[in-house]
Amino acid sequence: MDAAAAGGGCSLIIDAKELYHAICKGPVSNRWMIFCCNAMRAEMAELDNLIFDYANDTLLTVNYKLPRAESR
Prior knowledge:
By secondary structure, this protein is of the alpha+beta class. It has a domain at about 10-60. Helix content is about 40%, strand content about 15%. The chain has helices at about 1-5, 15-25, 30-45, and strands spanning about 10-15, 50, 60-65. Strands 1-3-2 form a three-stranded antiparallel beta sheet. Helix 2 (about 15-25) packs across helix 3. The chain starts with a helix and ends in a 7-residue tail after the last strand. The mean pLDDT is about 90.
């Protein structure tokens, strides 16, 4: 998020499935995906919002507003 904000971005969309693939190179396991979802929820601030896409099989997609506030 810091890199996106430093590059002048005003928001950053993170998808749990994409985050999982960036961290774990193996197949997606819903048992382990919950950790990505929990980390993403913990990072959410009041101005961030969830993106609902029922055609997509991801568990969670968040639009984080940038720059991040110092205190949450």
